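Lesson 9: reading folded outputs for more than one chain in a single document. The general rule is that every protein is listed as its sequence immediately followed by its structure tokens, and records are never interleaved. Here is the first one.
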Amino acid sequence: MFSEYADSQLQALIERYEPNYVIRQGDLAGEGLTARHSRTLGLHPELCLLLSTSGSTGAPKFVKLSRRNLDSNAASIADYLSIGPDNSVLLNLRLNYAYGL
């Protein structure tokens, strides 16, 4: 689980979803990587991404997305915005926002 949430929000998510690892922003050098379980669980072969919702109606929830979901979303956005292979695009949305992916 990658988190930019406040400590209280992060703790609530950890208690609810019991992730194997929590990585905080700036911790990619390894100091903040915290193992939470000693066993590793297998993942569904089509699972590509767990995207957190905004939590606007309560606690954030995770949405399971496949590679096909992400490809379809990207193709739809590129088509709508008329983005082609010869275009360069400035990414100004966070990657935890579906439209930013």
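And here is the second record, again sequence then tokens.
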Amino acid sequence: MLGSHRSRAHRTRWCFDSDPARLLERLRSDNSGGDVHLVGGPSTIETFRALDAVDKLELVVLPFMVGAGMRLTDSLASDTALSFESSRSLPGGSVEIVHSLRAWIPARDVAITERAASSPGLRA
């Protein structure tokens, strides 16, 4: 499911298109180029990550076991940095966790940058 954020004054509108890029463009233009809210699973994430259209993940953890499970998406490589934004409890014991996706910065670069900022004689 794909939709754009609208104020409560507007009714929900559904659009369908077999081409994900065209659908994304339609939704963005309907929302004056603003954010689009995407709801789906691994295939949906893969498709829209390939279009570089995912900048935030809102995951809901349900309180039951399903065995080994499946990978959320292959497009989120091990070097994809997730920046924690928030979490909240939902009715029935579920938990919503929100992360922003950002560029990966190796730990050694962060340490050098922090040292450089605190030591005037040290350059990164």
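What the second record shows: Helices lie at 20-30, 42-50, 107-118.
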